[in-house]
């Protein structure tokens, strides 16, 4: 039940990856990728959500500026990913997330967003601008958007050893969004991503359980 999809957006068509559960769904999740594009890891995350009972759609957010991007977790991949995010911009990226959400909302499915790194900040914006319940994993660019009020349930995951998100930035999330749930793990940045050096299995497993529990509650 895992397959590529085409998503119509106001910025032209983009690709995506959809995974459907074997049985009745608990709702839908828009899986928002890191700066490394819609790669094998993000497709595997979508598959895990489907195994947990959710329809999962992962849009290829870089498609308006460069098609079919899949980058390695190395210095060259980081540099290219940062350049692509700058060229795309947050406003256009949010439009693409909204288009991906519409593909499942038209099926009558309650929909949430889950994002990682750059995608974690987009998950926050999916909440504040689109009204989607959202889970943000180590969203490293979120501080400039913390004045935007939440419109739905919100869950944040951070690593206490993350060099990109210092403790004072986590404290700002608590200050601006006291109604959100925030968890901090004994891990670094990218701790959910098994191909990365910062992968931390125990923290990833606990965060995943908390994420699926959150989604079950938010999408009932």
Automatic annotation (TrEMBL):
InterPro entries: AB_hydrolase_fold (IPR029058), Dienelactn_hydro (IPR002925), Dienelactone_hydrolase-like (IPR051049)
Entry keyword set: Hydrolase
Gene3D superfamilies, alphabetized: alpha/beta hydrolase
The UniProt record lists the keyword Kinase: no
Domain of life: Bacteria
A GO molecular-function annotation: hydrolase activity
Domain Dienelactone hydrolase: 20-216
Protein name: Dienelactone hydrolase family protein
């Amino acid at each position: 039940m895992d397959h590529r999809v085409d998503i119509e957006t106001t910025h032209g068509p983009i690709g995506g990856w959809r995974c459907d559960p074997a049985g009745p769904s608990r709702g839908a999740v828009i899986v928002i990728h890191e700066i490394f594009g819609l790669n094998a890891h993000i497709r595997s995350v979508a598959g895990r959500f489907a195994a947990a009972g959710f329809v999962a759609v992962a849009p290829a957010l870089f498609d308006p500026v460069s098609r079919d991007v899949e980058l390695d977790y190395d210095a060259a991949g980081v540099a290219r990913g940062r350049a692509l995010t700058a060229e795309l911009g947050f406003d256009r990226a949010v439009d693409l997330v909204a288009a991906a959400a519409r593909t499942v909302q038209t099926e009558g499915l309650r929909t949430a967003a889950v994002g990682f790194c750059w995608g974690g900040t987009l998950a926050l914006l999916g909440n504040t601008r689109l009204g989607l319940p959202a889970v943000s994993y180590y969203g490293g660019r979120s501080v400039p958007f913390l004045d935007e009020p939440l419109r739905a349930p919100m869950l944040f995951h951070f690593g206490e050893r993350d060099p990109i998100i210092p403790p004072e930035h986590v404290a700002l999330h608590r200050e601006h969004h006291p109604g959100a749930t925030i968890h901090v793990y004994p891990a670094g940045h990218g701790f959910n991503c098994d191909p990365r050096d910062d992968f931390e299995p125990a923290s990833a497993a606990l965060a995943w359980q908390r994420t699926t529990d959150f989604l079950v509650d938010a999408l009932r």
